[in-house]
Amino acid sequence: MEAPLKQHQSGAWALLLCAWLLALVSTIAVLFVGEVMGQLPCVLCWFQRAFMFPLVLVLGVACCLSDTGVWRYALPLAVMGWLIALYHNLLYFGLIPESIKPCGAGPSCSGADMTILSGVPLPLLSLGVFSLLIIFLVLIRRRFTV
């Protein structure tokens, strides 16, 4: 009886660890781009950071405590970050007009220096990371909560 419970807990912990590592690597990467490379983030990037940075702490604590209930407070952060990243990508790829951009002044993410991995734009990476975090958190909710 104890073996299935241990396997159940290790599966939950593995998902928590993956989510935390994803948030941690993303946070370190944007800090590297901003602080080491000197690339200033645009306004929408700042808002996305505001939802990513706390996820490192929240998911890290959840890993330490094996707290599968973390989805209750991490999922809203990830969804809000995803919505901002989606809007950012719609602007970036020209699918919505820039006239409805919330803030026109400041740095832009459209330069070639704001891409990595042979031209993948940072806004698209952000959308992908938030998407993966949401998937991990939904899996935790569906598989490991009572």
What does this structure look like?
This protein is an all-alpha fold. The protein has one domain (2-144): DsbB-like (Bromodomain-like). 71% of the residues lie in helices and 3% in strands. It is built from 4 helices and 2 strands, in the order H-H-H-E-E-H. A two-stranded antiparallel sheet has the order 1-2. A hairpin with a 3-residue loop joins strand 1 (115-116) and strand 2 (120-121). Helix 3 packs antiparallel against helix 4. The longest helix has 35 residues, at 2-36. The protein is elongated. 31% of the residues are buried.
Topology:
Layout: H1 2-36, H2 43-65, H3 71-92, E1 115-116, E2 120-121, H4 122-144
Helix pairs in contact: 1-2, 1-4, 2-3, 3-4
